[in-house]
Structures are given as C-alpha cells and as structure tokens.
Amino acid sequence: MKGALLIVTVASMALLAGCSCGRDDGDVFGFMDGQDIRTADDLFLTQAAQGSAAEIEWAELALDRSRDPQVRQYAQRMIQDHQAVTQDLRRTADMVDVSVPSSLSASQAMVSETLDDLDGRAFDTQYVGQVLASHARQLELFEHASLHAENPQVRSFAAQHIGDLQSHLGQARRLHRQLGGTGIDRGMMD
Fold first, then answer.
1. pTM of the entire structure?
2. In terms of CB atoms within 10 Å, which of 75, 106, 107, 184 comes out highest?
3. Beta-carbon-side half-sphere exposure of residue 179 (alpha carbons within 13 Å)
4. pLDDT tens, 70-79?
5. pLDDT at residue 33 above 80?
C-alpha cells in the first residue's frame, strides 16, 4: 500500500512539475524547463536527449539499489541501449546543427532524488513504475517525430529507435506486473 501511494505521489509531482501550466513554449512532455527552442525538431532532440540521460541515471541507481535480478538485468540493458541511442542522437544533432543537453530536466532530477532515497522492493516498485511511464512518453515522442519532423535525418533517427522503445516498454510492463503492478495508469499497461 505504501509503495502504491509513493508511486502515485511521485508520478503526480512529476506531472505537476512537467505540466505546461499555461505556458506556451511547446513543452508537451515537460522536459524543457524554460529553454529556448528554435524548431519542433530541436525540441524533439532535446527531449530525447534528456529522456535518454534520465533512463541511464535511473538505471545506474537501480544497479546500486535493487536486489531483484530481473530489475538489475533490465537496468543494465537500459544503460547499454540508452548510451547507444545517446551516441546516435548526438551524431544526428550534429548533422542538423542542434546542441542538445546532457543533463536531466528539473522534473526528471526530482525523480532521481526520490529514487536515491529508496532501496530494495520500494526502490524496485518506484523505478519500474517510472521507467514504464517514461518509456510510454518517449515512445509517443519518437512516433510523432518519425512522422512529423521537418528534417529527414531527424525523422530517420526517430523511426530507427521506435522498436527499441517498444521493447523497453514491453519489458517494463512485464516487470511492473511481476512487482504487483499498482499505481500506474491503465493506458500504459495495454
């Protein structure tokens, strides 16, 4: 019960921290924290970079805090896959002359702080719930960019990584069910 309440509380905090709250800066996913963006492609690349950085940081915490072998194995894969995505993203960003951050957004940093205070089963539940939500958002972001990015190189980058994100999301769903599956919106579980 406490784990479910914690997930709902942190998810709510992350949503509130990331909501546009009347802003008109195009920050649909809550990653930008007031940065000036020139185009939708710039926004996508920035959000993708921050999302990948968050996945790596959270997975590193999982390797330190989790005792569950499946969670640890998933975290190791997230580090490997997201490091590769980050390298590909930086090449793409360089080709289209976009500077992307290597740091997390404020809302992602809040999640890191929350995760850093947990360990064991409480950590596992929170971590898996967070990566489930994060991959659902990232998949939506990449699918949109694969169809609507202005630059063909950006569209290609996005399309190339959709399969990996779908796989990550599927694995997160399975882990979530194994851990008791509470506190996450049903739409992410379909």
1. 0.78
2. 75
3. 31
4. 999 999 999 9
5. no
